[in-house]
């Protein structure tokens, strides 16, 4: 498989994860790397009007996140990861360009 096809498949598999999360499927999603049904969805809310959706595989090192423009449809406090939220907060604090309305928590 050439590099372009590999990239296209990677984008498709990660887009599929986002679509599944938006449909309310938050556990046992197929990992783009190891192909196991081991990806879970976690959230972070590091600042006012700032949300992140994280996809973490329990069976390999795969992880990725989506920076949300609004509150994710299936956001819930019990799915907020304090570790990921702290990581996102550090990223926001270190950002060179900040959103004008962003109040850090």
User: Structural class given helices, strands, pairing?
Assistant: alpha+beta
Strand content: 25-35%
Please report the total strand number as a whole number: 4
Q: Structurally, how many domains make up the residues?
A: 1
Strand order of the largest sheet: 1-2-3-4
SSE arrangement, N to C: HEEEEH
Mean pLDDT: 90
**Tally of contiguous helical segments:** 2
Q: Low-confidence parts lasting 5 or more residues at pLDDT below 50?
A: none
What does the largest sheet look like?
Answer: 4 strands, antiparallel
Tell me the Rg in angstroms: 15 Å
C-alpha termini separation? 45 Å
**Helical residue percent band:** 25-40%
Shape assignment: globular
Molecular structure report:
The chain has 105 residues and is α+β, with helices and mostly antiparallel strands. It has one domain (3-94). 31% of the residues lie in helices and 26% in strands. The protein is built from two helices and four strands. The chain has helices spanning 3-22, 82-94; strands at residues 29-30, 37-47, 50-57, 63-68. A four-stranded antiparallel sheet has the order 1-2-3-4. It is globular, with a radius of gyration of 15 Å. The mean pLDDT is 90.
Keywords:
single chain, 105 residues, alpha+beta, 4-stranded antiparallel β-sheet, 4 strands
Brief summary:
The chain is α+β, with helices and mostly antiparallel strands and 105 residues long. It has two helices and four strands; from the N terminus they run αββββα.
């Amino acid at each position: 498989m050439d590099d372009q096809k590999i990239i296209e498949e990677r984008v498709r598999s990660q887009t599929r994860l986002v679509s599944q999360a938006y449909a309310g499927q938050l556990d046992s999603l197929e990992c783009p790397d190891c192909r196991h049904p081991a990806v879970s969805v976690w959230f972070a809310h590091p600042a006012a009007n700032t949300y992140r959706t994280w996809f973490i595989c329990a069976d390999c090192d795969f992880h990725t996140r989506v920076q949300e423009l609004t509150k994710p449809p299936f956001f819930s406090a019990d799915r907020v990861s304090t570790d990921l939220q702290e990581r996102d907060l550090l990223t926001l604090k270190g950002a060179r360009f900040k959103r004008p309305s962003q109040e850090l928590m």
